[in-house]
Amino acid sequence: MSLRINSRGSQVVRLQKELKAAGFNPGPTDGIFGRGTQRAVRAYQSKYRLGVDGIVGPRTWSKLLHDGKTPAGGTSSVSRPSSAPRGRSVLGYVNGSPRRIQIAPVGNGKYLRADAAARFNQMKAAARRAGVNLSVVSGFRTMAQQRQLYAAYRAGRGNLAARPGYSNHQGGLSADLNTGGYNTRAYKWLKAHGRQYGFVNDVRGEHWHWTFRG
Ligand SMILES: [Zn+2]
């Protein structure tokens, strides 16, 4: 559900609290999305380069909720709005262990773990401003998908694929991108700027494979 000018209710209260927690001033916490709240949303979107439309859609919610968490691992003083878009909760795998993770969209119908997705989307926007179009060819993978890729690899029909359960794609941390080679603008841009957004090219010989290290 998107919130916009004239929206009312408990979700707007939560939005106003999150904006305050993020250091913006939406005016009174009254559950009414008025001009003051809209100004704060626009300022927030501008600061985080979310596309300034004054409407709180999935990307703005995702950023607000992710940043609302305290670094100490505590949670925001505000609980997650039940109707806010928050990606999906899925069963991922990290080092062979199943783990429930939140994934969020990164375009192209692909997903990454929510925190990686937020950074990826910022990186993608920055790349676009530099004239480089990044798109995700493969992001989060389910166990079934990884098994299939692994089988193909073992049969000599596919790229190197990690053992099912052990791919960073299954933790929602790796994205295979449309780099097209090591000598392309996309690869060079990523090599120069990816680290700023937490992404590194961590598999030798795979210019397309970028992993979020935070
Ligand atoms: Zn990969």
How would you portray this structure in words?
With 214 residues, the protein is α+β, with helices and mostly antiparallel strands. It has two domains: 10-57, no CATH class; 88-212, Muramoyl-pentapeptide Carboxypeptidase, domain 2 (2-Layer Sandwich), CATH 3.30.1380. 34% of the residues lie in helices and 15% in strands. The chain has helices at 10-21, 35-47, 58-67, 114-129, 143-154, 185-193, and strands at 88-94, 97-105, 111-113, 136-138, 174-177, 199-201, 209-212. It has a four-stranded antiparallel sheet with strand order 4-5-7-6, with no helix packed on it. The chain has a three-stranded antiparallel sheet with strand order 1-2-3. The protein is elongated. The model is unreliable at 70-77 and 79-85 (pLDDT under 50). Bound molecules: zinc ion. Residues 169, 174, 176, 209 line the site of zinc ion.
